[in-house]
Amino acid sequence: MRFLPAQEFMETKTIKNNEQSTSKTIRISGSEAVVRSLMAEGVDVLYGYPGGAIMPVYDELYKFQNEIHHVLTRHEQGATHAAQGYARISGKVGVAMATSGPGATNLITGIADAQIDSTPMVCITGQVGSHLLGSDAFQETDIVGISTPVTKWNHQVTKASEIPEVIAKAFYIAKSGRPGPVLIDITKDAQFEEFDFKYEKCTGIRSYKPIPETDPNTLQAAADLINNAKKPLVVWGQGVILGEAEAEFKAVIEKAGLPSAWTILGASAIPSTHPLNVGMVGMHGNYAPNVLTNECDVLIAIGMRFDDRVTGNLASYAKQAKVIHFEIDPAEVDKNVKTDVAVLGNSKDTLAAILPLLKENSHTEWHQKFKDLYQIEFDKVIKDDLHPTKDGLTMGEVLKEINAQTKGEAAIVTDVGQHQMIACRYADFNVSKSNITSGGLGTMGFALPAAIGAKMGAPERDVVMIAGDGGYQMTIQELGTIFQTKVPVKIVVLNNNFLGMVRQWQQLFFDRRYASTEMENPDFVAIAKGYHINAKSVSKREDLANAVKEMMETEGPYFLEVMVEKEDNVFPMIPTGASVSDVRLE
Amino acid sequence: MSENKLYTVSIYTENNIGLLNRISAIFQRRHINIESINSSISEIENVSKWTIVVKLTEDQMKKIIGQIEKQVEVIKAYYHTEEETIYQESCLFKIKSDLLFEERQIQNIIKESNARIVTVNKEFFVLEKSGRRSEIELLHRELSAFGILQFTRSGRIAVTKTPMEITKMLEAFNY
Ligand SMILES: Cc1ncc(C[n+]2csc(CCOP(=O)(O)OP(=O)(O)O)c2C)c(N)n1
Ligand SMILES: [Mg+2]
To answer: What pTM was estimated for this model as a whole?
Structure first.
């Protein structure tokens, strides 16, 4: 199968798909029903790996290959991350498919990642025939049981007639409310069985309320707190992006003059250059918003969940502040931080509703504090990261170069480790949905396959993947997928020959005992070339700009290795158990 | 606030085989022991009702209710204190029949405890008792002295003093 940009698929396909979702009934097999149901949901591309128990569905994918694009990843974990990358950049549901047993269990890491990062994804697995269930048949595994704690919903189908309804439900649940992963396990006999197929989209489930009602009193109470605040601070998360509330959010903070900081997954909802954007909070976040969290009088949390990497020690987190929490998931309210006012609802609606209740304000003096602390961080950390005077290359200067050559408009897909924190700190995010990274689970190996999905989900955008030498090798086989599909992703490995983030902790907290963190690495350029991907390695400052230029100007995929300082550390840092205001600059 | 208390959790759900896993995992992840669990039909057709007894702080309880309600197939979850519920447990004793006739004392215990004889045959008789945990435990202690062939006690079942407006909620869904 050839690689077609997802956009093209969309344009040619939606018309047909609409036809299919109308009420015509046709007699088909369960496996054909799976494919037709996916098409009816507007799926243009899915990621997966075949095997015995899912072969009937693959047979249908073969027949429908001009209408729905199946991408063969090189590992089922890669399929899930690709589906996640696709979902995160497009806002649509990502789809991954696998066979039973090992195929299904290989999906689990990606599913867990999607669950904790609220990514809409539907996974479809084949299962042994229903008469064999529970008999320890070949490649039988209880994937519904295994995936239960890491899915928003899951279900096993044993009859073909259930397929359209269950798939419709799966897409509805994955995408609505707080999004998440859903797994549908389909027995082989259900795939073969014929039935009268008719597709209807799911519009509601009586036991499931995706968006809680907003109490108008909470809006007024929140507005009063904000209007009377002298030192307000906004911390926003992915809820702004998932709710497609970027414009409403911007209007709110601009009207009330609110300094606003982001969690990793919230990055890019407003441009990095926006004057009210005061940077990232959390363990390796910016100095000013971390320190001033413990000085603000009103903390306005929007679509975020007070993860421990964001809050540090809860006992000394924003204790002086009144806390407002805009949230779609009622279970998040008061889970980690007690709120004074919880505004439940979809961020797009609640932010639009509070706007007229807010007074215009500018908080000039309070803003100056952020600028002053930024200057301290710049002198102690940022200057050396971005304008180093030492010989070795820093990760920061690579990011600076990428910013310059992409005008800060590329989607940055990162793996997990030092390079991830550096990328989040220094990448310019001037377009929403530009920071695609594994936040909650911290899954090494996420980046390469996620970049594939991201590029297919937004073919018009530049997608630059940034991984460490460690995590890159966890899913390096996806170079095969890139080679086969020709998907033009830019692959950057920041090679410090270490599991750098773990090494940093060993240096700081384990007296430099570098247990199993130093790596002897292969010739990454040769490996990329083995997959017929253009590749280069640089280790000198004077070569960096040209190498990035060549990468961005090359039409197809491109691999760039940058040899960076082996033992650089990421600062600022809030040590585990410390308070946000005890953030260390060195 | 941080005091551990017994709470009765009532969960109204769609009938689904996988849900038991989902709900018990919510407790298990947080190392909260389930004291008892009971599943049955409810006052509404096609809606199951679960009654779970747990011991924890109210703060933990609230968070767990949030996690339970978040499950797609859970219609509504409530928690109540001992004072807010009417609850019962039930138990069965299997005892040698000889004792019933030879030991006068047993007959008195049965009478005083309001236990009911379910069946008697030549070998054994079965005694049923419903009530509070303490009453059942007292009866168990008293009969232990004579020897019990088999004993089993059910999980708690409970109704609340205040109404639970599930029907209204479900009707609202149908517009
Ligand atoms: C699957 C997985 N295993 C282990 C870890 C723990 N871990 C976090 S960061 C890290 C080091 C990453 O090294 P590398 O990919 O080279 O990135 P660097 O920190 O050097 O930039 C490790 C091992 C993890 N996050 N994910
Ligand atoms: Mg490394």
So the answer is: 0.95
